[in-house]
Specification:
Distance between the termini: 52 Å
Radius of gyration: 23 Å
Helix content: 25-40%
Length: 443
């Protein structure tokens, strides 16, 4: 394939080639650059391990993160290392794969280069799997007082805020301020919001109940707010209704059809009424990374790149966009930004690239096979939708647990996570209740 075997270079290009690229021996194999080592990017990289290509994976972090369990770190159930693995360790056996820890700042589509500040890496084929960010719907100033949950730093910061709220309440003498400190608001009742609400309820009402002497943590108020008419819009109404009942039994207040109109350091305003809360957590939606701007491609309202049926961008068959960064239409509807879509897309793109590398041009369009939706609501309760099968309760929770353990990267992560869950299940204990602070650096 001509566009995979030729790389356009100029004197300027040569001057900006990264040191890593200069160290790479000359090769006739196509050079595939994958930006982002999340679910989609990592699947693509692993699938290309034995393909006749040279692979470079670029990520601004040095680890792959299992995002579905971030809420468990944020509520002191797991430590960050339990749900993450070094990218180099994951790909160390792939002799055709290099890993760069760097911040990508743009893409020179015509020159076929990935830009990293003053450095650049040339590509024959590019896979962008750069994920998404929290969407504050035109109010970026809300991020300061209502952080989202997308990274380990987010999770540990939220954990610190939650635990500090209880510590501050313990020494507070004003009952009104105590109630404000023990009020937690979650904006957005999708799976993340629901799982966080259930986890905070268990932390406050069970795990911490006997640890404090001057406050009753069981009086903690947890409010889950959803702007849409109902929570868990991606799930059937019957499962959402059962989840709502379960949350209420756990002491979570659920407000549906009530958008938040203001967020500040004191709390939120909903339906014209103020809710004073020390801690507000955002889980109301995402917006795509700036990949669309890098490519100059057409994007949807969420900033996701509109791709063709083989996940490439129009007029550039060697540039692919997958995961939360891509807007993929199937059966007239956009595919959801969930891990299974990204993983299947990563494997599909890798297969397409590998076949092109050996001269095979024909390839079926990408088709996502939906294996079901899962969400958990606290201890021993989950909801599962798999085709016509709809389950709730303990059986659904076991299925949810097995699926999440299976997709964790690395045997160590699986073993530790299984032990932690078993311990938490039987004792209600949260072993990762560490309050840490970043040390101020000298200027």
């Amino acid at each position: 394939m001509k566009e995979m075997q030729e790389t356009t270079t100029t004197p300027d290009t040569q001057n900006t080639i990264s040191k890593q690229e200069q160290r790479t021996p000359a090769t006739t194999m196509p050079h595939v650059v994958i930006v982002g080592a999340g679910f989609g990017g990592l699947q693509a990289a692993r699938a290309l391990g034995n393909a006749p290509v040279q692979v470079t994976v670029i990520d601004r972090q040095n680890h792959h993160l299992f995002q579905p369990l971030l809420y468990w770190v944020a509520t002191a159930g797991l430590s960050p290392a339990d749900i993450s693995s070094p990218i180099r360790a994951i790909l160390r056996r792939q002799k055709n794969t290099d890993v760069l820890m760097a911040e990508v700042t743009g893409v020179d589509v015509e020159g076929q280069r990935v830009l990293m500040g003053e450095r650049a890496v040339p590509y024959d084929c590019l896979v962008l799997a750069t994920g998404a960010y929290d969407n504050y719907f035109g109010h970026p100033e809300w991020e300061h007082d209502a952080p989202g949950l997308k990274s380990i730093i987010d999770a540990t910061s939220i954990r610190r805020d939650i635990l500090l709220a209880f510590e501050a309440a313990e020494i507070e003498t004003d009952p009104q301020k105590v109630q404000e400190l023990l009020t937690f608001v979650l904006v957005g009742a999708g799976p993340t919001g629901v799982e966080m609400a259930g986890a905070i309820a268990e932390l406050a009402h069970k795990a911490l109940a006997s640890d404090f002497r001057h406050i009753d943590t069981r009086s903690t108020r947890i409010i889950l707010i959803e702007a849409a008419p109902r929570m868990l819009a991606a799930f059937p109404e019957s499962l959402a209704r059962k989840t709502r009942k379960k949350l209420k039994r756990m002491g979570v207040e659920v407000m549906e059809g009530t958008p938040v109109t203001q967020v500040d350091a004191r709390g939120v305003v909903v339906d014209g009424k103020r809710i004073d809360a020390h801690t507000v957590i955002w889980s109301a939606g995402v917006t795509a990374s700036p990949a669309g701007q890098w490519l100059g491609a057409e994007v949807d309202r969420a900033g996701r790149v509109k791709v063709t049926n083989d996940l490439s961008i129009p007029n550039h068959p060697n540039v692919f966009v997958i995961g939360d960064t891509a807007s993929v239409m199937q059966d007239g509807k956009p595919l959801p930004g969930v891990a299974p879509v990204a993983m299947q897309a990563g494997r599909y793109v890798a297969s397409l690239i590998a076949q092109r590398a050996i001269g095979k041009q024909e390839h079926a369009p990408f088709h996502y096979r939906n294996k079901g939706n899962l969400a958990t609501v606290g201890r021993s309760y989950a909801i599962v939708e798999m085709g016509k099968l709809r389950l709730t309760g303990l059986v659904a929770w076991v299925i949810w647990l097995v699926v999440h353990i299976y997709y964790l990267i690395g045997f160590r992560n699986r073993l530790i996570t299984m032990f932690q869950w078993a311990w938490t299940y039987t004792t209600y204990s949260r072993g990762a209740r560490l309050i840490t602070f970043e040390k101020d650096r000298e200027p």
